[in-house]
Amino acid sequence: VTETLVLGAATASGFHPLVVASVEHLTDDAVAVTFDVPTHLKDDFNFCAGQSLTLRRVVNGVEHRRTYSICSAAGASPRIGVREIPAGVVSTWLVRHVRPGDRIEVQPPSGSFRANPEQPGRHLCIAAGSGITPILSIAATVLKNPSSHATVVYGNRTTSSVMFADELADLKNAHHARLNLIHVLSREPRDVGLFSGRLDAERLRALFDSVVRVDGIDHVWLCGPLGMLSAAREVLAEFGVPTGNVHSNCSTSTSRHHN
Ligand SMILES: Cc1cc2nc3c(=O)[nH]c(=O)nc-3n(C[C@H](O)[C@H](O)[C@H](O)COP(=O)(O)OP(=O)(O)OC[C@H]3O[C@@H](n4cnc5c(N)ncnc54)[C@H](O)[C@@H]3O)c2cc1C
């Protein structure tokens, strides 16, 4: 496999070669990649919580573009969370081969899934698998407002497949009562039965009936597989949450499906 990275100035379609500042291993099959943004590109790479970056990799003359959500809080260096898809052209490269100092072509942040931290509010975030990536950014950003509260419900198979476990625990420690963090595991029993199983409509109903208060919620942020998104929308409607308060982000029916 020969690889071509176009270096130097901005390339076609607004791609910029950014230096990889760090690669952190989150799980056996997932990493966080942080980019250095040179001073002259700072404005271009300013992002809102929830937005994503499109990367480009050229292999044997064939261009592959993939989008990854930013996991860092607004104002920090852009950092993406990537889970490897077996034989995936871009995710496998990012998880197994990319190293600090490498250059990757990246487009400025984009996407309408984004939170405004200025307004105080009550936020409910529901994520599964790598869907936590933009949710981590949103939760960390909105909680900077001392009047805001967030609940994060995060579904995974097992403890070892939880991306950003440490960052989420740190966020909880930093905000205590303003952050309600609930891990739900589908293939590992938890002490509380409610937190064991898939994030389907039945479980969401049970959560909203008990530990997650949805009345008066200002914004709901959903990121995960299509099935989880539609179950959440259905149950939120049953509980009277206005549709306009519900925002969702989904790549494909499978690409964030890790339950
Ligand atoms: C808005 C948006 C945000 C995204 N954010 C993230 C993110 O934060 N983190 C993240 O890890 N990914 C994210 N993705 C998905 C990402 O863009 C890629 O689709 C993913 O990394 C796979 O690309 P690849 O080149 O590795 O695989 P490809 O080379 O495209 O696929 C390899 C093979 O695997 C199949 N395949 C692709 N996806 C899956 C899957 N999930 N399960 C099983 N088979 C599959 C393909 O059909 C193909 O046969 C996001 C996508 C979108 C649209």
Summarize the structure in short:
This protein has 5 helices and 12 strands.
Molecular structure report:
The protein is α/β, with parallel strands linked by helices and 259 residues long. 19% of the residues lie in helices and 30% in strands. The protein has 5 helices and 12 strands. Strands 1, 2, 3, 4, 5, 6 and 7 form a 7-stranded antiparallel sheet that branches. The chain has a 5-stranded parallel sheet with strand order 10-9-8-11-12, sandwiched between helices. The protein is globular, with a radius of gyration of 18 Å. The model is unreliable at 1-8 and 252-259 (pLDDT under 50). It binds flavin-adenine dinucleotide. Flavin-adenine dinucleotide is lined by residues 52, 64, 66-69, 81-83, 85, 87-92, 130, 133, 251, 254-255.
Classify the helix fraction into a percent range: 10-25%
For the secondary structure, the number of strands is: 12
Radius of gyration: 18 Å
Which structural class best describes the helix and strand composition? alpha/beta
Overall body shape: globular
Spell out which ligands are present.
flavin-adenine dinucleotide
Largest sheet: 7 strands, antiparallel
Mean pLDDT: 92
Give the distance, in angstroms, between the N- and C-terminal Cα atoms: 32 Å
Our count of helices gives 5
Low-confidence stretches: 1-8, 252-259
Strand content: 25-35%
Order of helices and strands: EEEEEEHEEHEHEHEHE
